[in-house]
Amino acid sequence: RIAKELKDEL
Amino acid sequence: MNLFRLAGDMSHLFSIVLILLKIYTSKSCAGLSMKTQELYTLVFVTRYLDLFYSYVSLYNTVMKLIFLASSFGILWYMRYHKQVKQTYDREQDTFRHYILVVPCAVLALIVNNELSVTEVLWTFSIYLEAVAILPQLVLLQRTKNVDNLTGQYIFFLGAYRALYILNWIYRYWTEPKYRQYLVWAAGLVQTGLYADFFYYYLKSWQAGEKLRLP
After folding, report:
1. Helix or strand or coil: residue B70?
2. pLDDT value at position A1?
3. Which of B15, B43, B60, B121 to mutate against chain A (most A CBs within 10 Å)?
4. Which end is more exposed in chain B, N or C (fewer Cβ atoms within 10 Å of the end residue's Cβ)?
C-alpha cells in the first residue's frame, strides 16, 4: 500500500 | 526533488506554454487534437482532486493549479474563441474518447493500490495519461501537416516522460521506500508511444527540415 507521502509527483 | 524531476516538470510546463503561444499568436489550433486536450483535462481533474485533501508543497500546489487552469484555457480557446474554433480539424479528429477512457477505468478498478474512490480516480488518471496522446498522434499521421509548434509541443511532452523515467531511476536508488510499480509501468508505456514520433522528429531535425511523417 502506497503511503500518501510518496505521491509527491505531478 | 531531484534535477530530473524538475527538468521533467519544466518540460511539461513548457509544452503547455508552447500550445497556448501557438493558439494565441496564430489564432489557430490547426493540427491540435481536442480529444487529447480533453483527455488531459480529465487526467488533471481526476488526479488533482488531492488538492482538497493532501498538501505536499507550495511548488506542487502551484503546478497543479497551473496545469488545471491551462488545460481548461486551451479547451476554452478551441471551443469558444471566435477565430480559433474555426481552425479546429473536426473532421480529422475523430478518435473516440471511450476507446481510451473505458479500458482505463476498468483497469483502474482492477489494478490499484486501494479500492477507494480517490485512489481509483488517481490510478485512472495515471493510466489515462499514458494513452491520452494517442488522438493527437493519430491526427498528426492523418493531416501530415505538422507545423513547428505542434511538433515541438509533442517533443517536449515526450521529453517530460523520458525525464520522469530518469527521475524514477534516481529515486529508486536514493529512496528505499519509493516503489511505485503501477506508475512506472504506465510511464514506460507512455514514453514508448512517443518512440516512433521521436524517431521522425529527430530525423527531420537532423536533415534541417520541417517535421515530415511518412
Report:
1. helix
2. 46
3. B60
4. C
> Is this complex's ipTM strictly greater than 0.90?
no
Q: What residue type is B75 in one-letter code?
A: L
Say how many CB pairs under 8 Å bridge A and B.
Answer: 27
Contact B177 A4 (CB under 8 A): no
Q: Where are the alpha helices (DSSP H) in B175-214?
A: 181-193, 195-206
Find chain A residues with C-beta within 8 A of B122's C-beta: 7
How distant, in Å, are the alpha carbons of B16, B52, B190, B212 from that of B12? 7, 23, 14, 23
What number of other Cβ atoms are within 10 A of residue A10's Cβ? 20
CA B27 from chain centre, in angstroms, equals 22
Instruction: Work out the pLDDT band at A3, boundaries 50, 70, 90.
Output: low
Optimal mutation site among A1, A2, A6, interface B, most CBs of chain B within 10 A: A2
User: Distances in Å between the alpha carbon of B80 and those of B25, B86, B87, B97, B137?
Assistant: 16, 9, 12, 20, 24
Q: What is the mean pLDDT of each run of 10 residues along chain B (214 residues)?
A: 96 96 94 96 96 93 98 97 95 95 98 93 97 93 79 92 96 90 94 87 78 73
Q: Which residues of B touch A8 (CB under 8 A)?
A: 56-57, 60
Q: What value, to the nearest 5°, has the Cα angle with vertex B112 and ends B37 and B49? A: 45
